[in-house]
Specification:
This protein is α/β, with parallel strands linked by helices. The protein folds into 3 domains: about 100 residues, Rossmann fold (3-Layer(aba) Sandwich); about 200 residues, 3-Layer(aba) Sandwich (UDP-N-acetylmuramoyl-L-alanine:D-glutamate ligase), CATH 3.40.1190.10; about 140 residues, Mur ligase, C-terminal domain (Protein-Tyrosine Phosphatase, Chain A, Alpha-Beta Complex). The protein is built from 16 helices and 20 strands. Helix 1 links the parallel strand 1 and strand 2. Helix 1 crosses helix 6, helix 5 packs antiparallel against helix 12 and helix 15 packs across helix 16. It is globular, with a radius of gyration of 23 Å.
């Protein structure tokens, strides 16, 4: 019986372990941590598969059992001791797979892939909705929250016709060869440099989704990524999209998305606004075209689906308006590129009270300079607040806040009618929160709590 070592027992690792057990393999799980959730998941797996071995609280220097295959979770860094121990445990001729690669081999339905720095989740949800509107039973998976291994287990049961896979650089870095499928790279900006070491290494991971032999319809990029494409791949045909480049296949004419001059969708009819969302819509339409052909884009059901679509929470989410002040939760903006998109959306002169800061991922904060003219005051928090202050000092009025709660209350207190109070942190959340969603929920709670206190004191 083949031994499969699952490295990392988070969402991806737990799904991969269930898939490996369902395949009849001997499953060994290793993680440097131990939580109630992990132990419960391992116990549930053992009830059906008593041979499952769970190594929790693994410490460097402890060898892992020999194995025929390693499935590495996206959260495990290449330089980590657990990663090195797993390499040492792999038998000669064994397979080293990312969770994504392991699951892709077991998915028995076609799929499309979406990657990029920002907009992945929105575009994944949009593409899934458009494929469904065209008559395909599509499902979203991958980095969006449902591990691909989970989808591989359920796809046959659910009669899934197509999977729409959101892929992150962490998932892609361990893949040698991404399978051929329609794929889109949305954009590229400084992010996760602490993990990849350089922007080029980060970009190389992203462009793996386009490396297989694909038709021009299947290889989809933002037109400003052509230099990166030429750097990593042969000069082959692509489908391009851009809100600014009028020579792109998909572009904007006024407020109308067009495909090679032909109107496809009027942005004023829907609820997704801003240049970034126009490009997300273009990428989703391009993927629909790659699967269903040109004419599918012009069906009435497609325009109706786009008009009804709402993006999820934590991305430019307007959740309150009080006394002429707008409150926006943009907690999912974990890099400067995303912050600049939000600033373009909400800026009206210098009216933004911006809460910035969190866990630094080695990013270039100088990219925020294009937004400086619109920032009335920045409230800096988190472990990288000093780095942000060094970048903003003398150009933007700043306040160093002791903690997240103080930053929110300071911003609410400073706001005047016409202002926008926005959490758009440009950083990861894990120095203070479990994830960006917890940060966004806390921001909304603190704002509403502060507003109630102010109202009660009047």
């Amino acid at each position: 019986m083949e031994n499969i070592l699952i490295c990392g027992y988070g969402v991806s690792g737990r799904a991969a372990a269930r898939l490996a057990a369902a395949m009849g393999r001997k499953v060994i799980i290793a993680d440097e941590h131990s939580s109630l959730e992990m132990r419960a998941a391992a116990q549930a797996l053992r009830r059906e598969n008593p041979d499952v071995e769970f190594i929790s609280n693994w410490k460097p220097g402890h060898p892992l059992p020999p194995c025929d295959c390693v499935v590495i979770s996206p959260g495990i860094r290449q330089e980590s001791p657990l990663h090195k121990a797993a390499r040492a445990a792999l038998r000669p001729g064994g397979r080293w797979l990312s969770e994504l690669e392991f699951a892709l081999d077991k998915v028995h339905c076609p799929f499309v892939s979406i990657t990029g720095t920002n907009g992945k989740t929105t575009t994944t949800e949009l593409t899934t909705a458009l494929l469904r509107a065209s008559g395909i039973n599509a499902a979203s998976s991958g980095n969006i929250g449902t591990a691909l291994s989970e989808c591989a287990l359920e796809a046959e049961k659910q009669k899934t016709g197509y999977l729409v896979i959101e892929t992150s650089s962490f998932q892609l870095e361990n893949i040698e060869e991404f399978p051929a499928c329609p794929a889109a790279v949305l954009n590229l900006a400084s992010d996760h440099i602490d993990r990849h070491g350089s922007l080029e290494a980060y970009a190389r991971a992203k462009f793996k989704v386009l490396a297989a032999k694909l038709s021009p319809e299947q290889r989809i990029i933002n037109s400003n990524l052509r230099p990166w494409l030429k750097k990593f791949l042969p000069d082959t045909g692509v489908t391009t999209f851009s809100a600014e480049d009028k020579d792109a296949d998909f572009t904007l004419t006024g407020q109308v998305v067009t495909f090679r001059g032909r109107p496809v969708y009027d942005l004023t009819k829907g609820q997704l606004h801003g240049r970034h969302n126009a490009e997300n819509i273009m990428a989703a339409l391009a993927l629909l075209r790659a699967v269903r052909g040109d004419e599918a884009m012009f069906a009435p059901a497609i325009a109706e689906t786009l008009a009804a679509f709402k993006s999820g929470p934590h991305r430019m989410e307007v959740f309150a308006r009080r006394n002429g002040i707008t409150y926006v939760n943009d907690s999912k903006a974990t890099n400067p590129h995303a912050v600049n998109a939000a600033v373009r959306q909400f800026a009206d002169g210098r009216n933004l009270l911006l809460i910035l800061g969190g866990l630094d991922k080695g990013m270039d904060f100088s990219e925020l300079e294009v937004s400086f003219p619109h920032i009335k005051q920045a409230f800096l928090t988190g472990s990288c607040r000093e780095a942000l202050l060094n970048q903003l000092a003398g150009k933007v009025k700043c306040k160093l806040s002791g903690d997240f709660r103080s930053a929110v209350r300071d911003a609410v207190a400073a706001a005047e009618p016409g202002d926008v109070v926005m959490l758009s942190p440009a950083t990861a959340s894990m120095d203070m929160f479990k994830n960006y969603a917890e940060r966004g929920d806390m921001f909304k709670l603190l704002v509403l709590e502060t507003l109630r206190q102010v109202k009660g004191s009047n």
